[in-house]
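This follows on from our talk about sequence and fold. Go ahead and set the record down below:
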Amino acid sequence: MRSPTLPAAHGHAHSRDGHTHSHEDYTHQAVSFQNVDVEYGPVVALEGVSFSVENGSLSGIIGPNGGGKSTLLKTVVGLVKPSRGQVLVDGRPSHRMRRHIGFVPQLEQVDWHFPATVWDVVMMGLTPSRGLFRSHSRANREAAAEALGTVGLKDLRRRGIGELSGGQRRRVLLARAIASHPSILLLDEPMTGLDPTAQHSFLDIIDRLREGGATVIMCTHNLTCVSARASDVAVINGRLIAYGPPEEVLLESVLADAFGHQLVVHASGEALALHHHDHRPAWPGRG
């Protein structure tokens, strides 16, 4: 993956109870949240969120439903504007870096009855680079084919999206997001509804993308995946409760602060946060 490389110092933040501590080193900051507040009218969704994400890392964002996880992702891609503070991508305001950002929305935000093929959806990810009414270039077609190959869906390119399984749907949305070779990849609840085999297959793809230079930020309720795969974890519930390596953050006291009694452990050993979704669907070109 192509990645802009701008010199910047990294402040690795560890936070408890809203107090953030930074340890400066020479690692590049891919995404930096700086005192981010988000308000929806009188409702404060996020308050004073500050931490930075290392280049090439996989940062997990966990917290209860309605705690602001998805809102935080949307501040990076520009779908939500902070009321105060700012989000920097490679040291620049995030709204100036949109072409470097890929976004994979929740499945519930997509209308899977929309009459489109797998190929159509992936090509939608390249629309901003060509203009809505221009034909796709050979380079764009090759990029879409490469993205489908990366996620293992090249043989299904002509299949209607309504015929896909849950795991295939997530992979086609991932292909759409990576077709333009973003340096930052945002994933909103990609593990929901997948069995353990499909989860591991999906995360293996993410690991390969990281090896190619991508930085990944993933919202999820699956604490087991975060513990096993994430470089760092941010615990969010309207504010930043903690941020750091999984072994330092996924502690009983931190999780109790964030989730209260919403945690459940399945017989398989997976620790999941109880949640529900109530989203109006959007056609696949919207994200």
Observations:
- The CA atoms of residues 126 and 180 lie 6 Å apart.
